């Protein structure tokens, strides 16, 4: 049989490692002939736009380079499939299944987050209804770490490592002058505060900053924010604040565009700027906001070896699950212990993850709603361990590019 793989949703720097995991495991298995890459996620199956990956990933060096390359080599999408019982949408499933059948694809692997698991769930349901024996397997990824069931998601550890390293550098930079200052750092994560909360790991390196951490899981009021800033300003010359993009600034200055994607998720960027304007007006010292933006999900020069290794391993396990006959499942990590760090890879019914969000636990947020506990540090630390030896060219990281 042949297999196909696609990448979907927001990029991470580990999503190509999962693709390599699928590809390498397929090469090890004589029952698998061609490995197709579907361009731009599910759009590739709808438009019959597939690439024979054996033609483009030719050597072991290609695989090694690809697993170190950020973003999605096959492109991505934010496409929501119609409901399986919606007669108007049946032609979309006809196109997908006709593409799968035409290319004798026996298993389809979708690397993505909670929206992409909606696609896996719908495809396996429609497949069963149509009597197809094609297997649909989800492989998790997202820097937001907001998928339920799994202990964590590939891509998150590397994003957290980048965020912590960058915030540590910002701390050094912001404390050089003798004047008072406030620096507000906006971090991605949509409705979940995991990535912003991960800055608490800097404590393990003896940092006291960020002095304030705001997550969407805690109530936010701009008046209380100003009080918190005043209290921290009395203690520190340079106050550092980490704020999740999902926090609602509640201060009139909405810097957001209001644009939504196909799943109804709003493009959130802007809270840092809104809080900067508020603090500048009401407190009056030097205030700067920094939005880490897409750098936190596409920077591979300081990625976590644990994350990249796990991303590849979970891709390989997905192929084994398909060959065992599993269908409509998503691969998940189960953590057995923090120290030593031990995880197993298992499968879970995709309906348990599709369209669902796992938010940062309230029990790890302090009473004041502006910081997180040391328990969270124990959870996060294992995920950022180890460094990947990056391939360089002319003093810059080298990336794998599809030239098919
Ligand atoms: O996929 C996760 C994510 O990176 C979120 O953290 C962020 O809010 C969103 O994607 C941004 O979406 P887009 O890539 O569509 O701008």
Please describe what this structure looks like.
By secondary structure, this protein is of the alpha/beta class. The chain folds into two domains: 2-154 and 300-354, Rossmann fold (3-Layer(aba) Sandwich); 157-296, Phosphofructokinase domain (Rossmann fold). 33% of the residues lie in helices and 18% in strands. The protein has 13 helices and 13 strands. It has helices at residues 15-27, 43-46, 53-56, 60-67, 90-102, 114-129, 156-174, 194-197, 222-233, 271-282, 295-298, 305-323, 374-380; strands at 2-7, 35-38, 50-52, 105-112, 135-140, 181-187, 212-214, 238-244, 286-291, 329-337, 342-349, 392-393, 396-397. The strands form three sheets. It has a seven-stranded mixed beta sheet, sandwiched between helices. A four-stranded parallel beta sheet has the order 7-8-6-9, with helices on both faces. Helix 1 (15-27) packs antiparallel against helix 4 (60-67) and helix 1 (15-27) crosses helix 12. The longest helix has 19 residues, at 156-174. The protein is globular and about 70 Å long. Residues 9-10, 78, 113, 142-144, 188-190, 245, 261, 267-268, 297 line the site of 6-O-phosphono-beta-D-fructofuranose (F6P).
Oligomeric state of the chains present here: single chain
- State the shape: globular
Radius of gyration of CA atoms, rounded to a whole number? 22 Å
Q: Report the portion of residues in β strands.
A: 15-25%
Q: In terms of structural class, how would the helical and strand content be classed?
A: alpha/beta
- The largest beta-sheet arranges its strands as 3-2-1-4-5-10-11
List the total number of helices. Answer: 13
Main β sheet profile: 7 strands, mixed
CATH-defined architecture of the largest domain? 3-Layer(aba) Sandwich
Number of strands: 13
Q: Look at the structure and give the mean pLDDT.
A: 95
The level of helicity is: 25-40%
Ligand species: 6-O-phosphono-beta-D-fructofuranose
Element-level helix/strand string: EHEHEHHHEHEHEHEHEHEHHEEHEE
CATH topology-level fold name of the largest domain: Rossmann fold
The N- and C-terminal alpha carbons lie at a distance of 23 Å
Give the domain tally. Answer: 2
According to CATH, what is the class of the largest domain?
Alpha Beta
Contiguous runs where pLDDT drops below 50 for at least 5 residues: none
């Amino acid at each position: 049989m042949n297999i196909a793989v696609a990448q979907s949703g927001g990029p991470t720097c580990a999503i190509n490692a999962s693709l390599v995991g699928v590809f390498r495991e397929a090469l090890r298995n004589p029952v698998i002939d061609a490995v197709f890459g579907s361009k731009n996620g599910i759009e590739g199956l709808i438009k019959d736009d597939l690439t024979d990956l054996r033609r483009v990933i030719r050597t072991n060096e290609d695989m090694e380079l690809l697993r170190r390359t950020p973003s999605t080599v096959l492109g991505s999408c934010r496409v929501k499939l119609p409901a399986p019982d919606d007669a108007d949408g049946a032609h979309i499933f006809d196109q997908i299944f006709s593409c799968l059948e035409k290319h004798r694809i026996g298993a389809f692997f979708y690397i993505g987050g909670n929206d992409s698991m909606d696609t896996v769930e719908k495809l396996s349901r429609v497949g069963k209804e149509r009597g197809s024996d094609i297997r649909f397997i989800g492989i998790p990824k997202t820097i937001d770490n907001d998928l339920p069931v799994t202990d964590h998601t590939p891509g998150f550890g590397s994003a957290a490592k980048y965020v912590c390293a960058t915030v540590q550098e910002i701390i050094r930079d912001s404390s050089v002058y003798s004047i008072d200052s406030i620096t507000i750092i906006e971090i991605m994560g949509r409705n979940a505060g995991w990535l912003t909360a991960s800055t608490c790991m800097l404590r393990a390196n003896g940092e006291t900053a960020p002095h304030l951490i705001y997550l969407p899981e805690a109530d936010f009021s701009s008046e209380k924010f100003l009080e918190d800033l005043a209290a921290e300003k009395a203690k520190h010359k340079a106050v550092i604040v980490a704020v999740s993009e999902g926090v609602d600034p509640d201060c009139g200055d909405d810097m957001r565009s209001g644009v939504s994607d196909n799943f109804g998720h709003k493009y959130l960027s802007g809270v840092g700027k809104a809080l900067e304007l508020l603090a500048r007006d009401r407190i009056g010292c030097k205030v700067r906001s920094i939005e880490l933006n897409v750098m936190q999900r596409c920077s591979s020069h300081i990625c976590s070896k644990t994350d990249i290794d796990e991303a590849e391993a979970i891709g390989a396990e997905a192929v084994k699950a398909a060959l065992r006959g599993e269908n409509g499942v998503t691969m998940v990590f189960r953590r057995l212990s923090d120290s030593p760090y031990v995880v197993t890879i298992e499968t879970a019914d995709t309906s348990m993850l599709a369209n669902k969000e796992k938010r940062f636990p309230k029990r790890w947020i302090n009473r004041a709603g502006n910081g997180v506990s040391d328990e969270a540090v124990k959870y996060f630390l294992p995920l950022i361990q180890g460094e990947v030896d990056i391939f360089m060219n002319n003093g810059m990281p080298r990336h794998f590019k599809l030239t098919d």
